[in-house]
# Entry
Amino acid sequence: MNGIEQSIVRVEHLIKRYNSTVAVNDVSFEIKKGEIFGLLGPNGAGKSTIISILCCLLKPSSGRGTISGFDLEKNALEIKRIIGVVPQEISLYHTLTARENLTFYSRIYGLSRQMREQRIAKILEMVGLSKRADEPLQNYSGGMKRRINIGIALLHNPKILFLDEPTVGVDPQSRRRIYDTILELNNKGMTVLLTTHQMEDAERLCHRIAIVDNGKLIALDTLEGLMKFAGECDIVRVEARNITQKTIASLEKVDSLQKVSVDRDMMTIQLLRGREMLATIVDILTASDTKVDSIQIKEPDLETLFLHLTGTSLRQ
Ligand code: ADP
# Structure
């Protein structure tokens, strides 16, 4: 990360209600200048709603926030000048070429003709589409269109870039290209906020990750910090026959155990210090006549951490 650790985004106690749904429930965080900050959570967690509030597209029910010192409620115009937004929905003209799409949007942003040509050439290079710039978008893959959308968000040279699920539905090649573009922009000093429900995005890109579930921010740390915590929460998977209530009751007596769930012949045990406790688990299973076919410890990752924090899978 470049530069001094100064906040560029600050939100305090954001709440957004839609009738009986609380989409964002008392969320506070800060994004430092020059960092890539990720909002990670399953579908429906509230990530897009948070981004829409930060882009001044939605008003929060309560709470406040600033971007670069500008107030979300009072300074929407100033904020829109310094942010670039890449929405999930792609809004492009499919009969026009990539260059024509970028030209169209650069006119809307009021870029002069000379600036326009230079800037568009640079952006096409940045998103890796210079060679295909003069083909109509109907020839493009979903990932290439997403890259053009990123390009459009960069036309007015924003200080901070918001990307809502940048890699959903894109092919692996475009995914890598999108990663490279985000990292390159960040290297040049751009602050990035992205939402994702994919662990890989968070792991590959983000300096800090906020885990969101059911509208709440349930963890916020660097990947290393989160992994350190995840490392203490192991998942042991046991494939076995004859899993009885007695087996489960005996396991539940283990001190470091947090949760046992059974799905047919697969038992998932969440516990602290799983490796150390493996012998104890095997003893309990043997004593209760459970026939073990396989037993494995899942290496800690963001998925295990999410399961530990919420009791559900990130993928669900
Ligand atoms: P995510 O981006 O994490 O998938 P969203 O922010 O889109 O989550 O949605 C959070 C919650 O708010 C979900 O329960 C969703 O159904 C609800 N929601 C989002 N937008 C609206 C809306 N316009 N009207 C009613 N409910 C909404």
In short: The domain at 7-227 is CATH 3.40.50.300 (Rossmann fold). The first strand starts at residue 7 and ends at 18. The chain has two domains: 7-227, 232-299. Residues 172-187 form the longest helix (16 residues).
